[in-house]
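Today's session is about reading a structure prediction critically. Students often jump straight to the picture, but the first step is always the sequence itself: look for stretches that repeat, for charged clusters, for runs of hydrophobic residues. Only then move on to the predicted structure, which in these notes is written as discrete structure tokens rather than atom positions. Here is the chain we will use throughout the hour.
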Amino acid sequence: MGRSILITGMSGTGKSAVVAALVARGRSAIDLDADGWSEWVPCEGDPTGARAGYDWLWNEAKLAGLLAAERDAPLFVAGCASNMGAFVRLFDRVVLLTAPLPLLLDRVRARSGGLYGKTAHERQRIAENARAFEPRLRAIASDVIEVDLPLDEVVARIETIAA
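Below is the predicted structure for this chain, in token form.
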């Protein structure tokens, strides 16, 4: 069976860009932050800053099915959610993409793809979450990649990790 690789990191680290580049290279790659793979689930508080009283969580049944499916080639999935802990043990490798907070905030402010991170409140939550959760992501990561590199180099490193 092909290996499964989780690519994770805080908002702005380039997870979606990495998925798009992997797909362009003919790899099987999925952005778990996309509709259908994640969904708004009622919760206490405002964990994302995007929708008070809800958290953006991975669809557990759908992801479990994906990871259980037979495959010959590596599967790359990217995302970061508060329910990811239930899945970490199912991945062969966990790759953390990381960058200094000012770079993350600049990226989410300037990106043209997703809208998340455009408001000051969302950027504040991103900063708070980065301080609180990136150390936890480092603790579960088998590999860490600083994303101040060109995208092609980041993707090449991830492909090497999956080999």
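Discussion point for the tutorial: The helical segments are 15-24, 60-68, 101-110, 120-140, 151-162.
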